[in-house]
Structure formats: C-alpha cells, structure tokens
Design brief:
CATH class of one domain: Alpha Beta
CATH topology of one domain: D-Maltodextrin-Binding Protein, domain 2
CATH architecture of one domain: 3-Layer(aba) Sandwich
Order of helices and strands: HEHEHEHH
Structural class: mainly alpha
Radius of gyration: 27 Å
CATH superfamily of one domain: Bordetella uptake gene, domain 1
Shape: elongated
Oligomer: single chain
Strand content: 5-15%
Helix content: 25-40%
Strand order of the largest sheet: 2-1-3
C-alpha cells in the first residue's frame, strides 16, 4: 500500500466516523401552525372565492388550518404590502388579481414588485370585457374611443367583481 492510498483510507475512515457520530436529522414538519392567505379583495369577489376554495383544499391536504384574510383597497396594494411585510417563513401567502401588474404605474411603491415577491402559481385567468349601453354608437374599441373624445365624456368601470 502506498502512502497516498493509506492517506485516502484514513480520510475515508475519518469521514465515515464523523457521519456516524452525527445524530440523524429530519426535516421539520410543515405546517406546524395555521397558514394565512391574504386576499386583495372584499369577501364575495372572485379573488376571495378563489382564495377560499384554495384554502379549503390546502387545509385538507396539509392537515392544518388555512385562513383567508381579506385586505381590500387601493387596487390590491394594501394586501400586497401586508404580504411583503410578513415574515418570510412560508406561513403567509398572498393572492392578488391582475391589478398587481399595474400597481407600479399608479402608486409609489414601498417595495420592489419584481424581487420582493415570489410568484408561486397562476390560479385562474379570465376574459376582460368592454361593454356599453345600447344607445352608445360604438361597435369596436376604436369607435368607443373616438366617441368619447368627440363628446369629451369620461368612461368608467366598476371595481372587479362588483356591479355598477
């Protein structure tokens, strides 16, 4: 046996002894306490309904209560800020509608929307519709914009999930 082989054997034996001396490590169970989903809409809105549906399924799958906390307002900004301020421990999730994508355009944010939040999954998608009263002489979006500019009338829309 060469000196190099003896050295390798000693290192291998030392490594095995060190591993044998370490107590077995097991991963902690998750979750060990209730999980919270912060939802960016009022109770009864479509985002709330999706959040409650997911919370029920997660409660069953995880064996731990998953709670929905509604934080409506400011186009979802209040919920997003609450999510950003929460401890990064996996016990707070945040569910927001499509309005999240335009928040930087309308508010001065106290967080970085690209790096302070980690997207996990897209839960739903749906169409966005533009509808007008039958008396409005528009059949296309272009017609509607021309009509609004001519008459100098403003256009409004109700919040997501609500009737006008």
């Amino acid at each position: 046996m060469t000196r190099l082989q003896v050295t390798r054997s000693c290192v291998q034996v030392a490594a095995m002894a060190a591993l044998a001396a370490c107590p077995p490590v097991s991963a902690q169970q998750y979750p060990t306490k209730p999980v919270k989903i912060i939802v960016s809409s009022s109770p009864g809105g479509i985002t709330d309904l999706i959040g409650r549906f997911i919370a029920q399924r997660l409660t069953t799958a995880l064996g731990q209560q998953v709670i929905v906390e509604n934080r409506p307002g400011a186009g979802g900004l209040i919920a997003v800020e609450a999510g950003v301020k929460s401890a990064p421990d996996g016990y707070t999730l945040m569910l927001s509608g499509a309005s999240y994508t335009i928040l930087p355009s309308i508010y001065k944010l106290k967080f970085d929307p690209m790096s302070d939040i980690t997207p996990i999954i897209q839960l739903s998608q749906g169409p966005h519709l533009v509808v007008v009263h039958p008396s409005v002489p528009a059949t296309t979006a272009r017609d509607l914009l021309r009509s609004r500019k001519r008459t100098r009338e403003s256009s409004t829309s109700p919040p997501q999930g609500r009737a006008p």
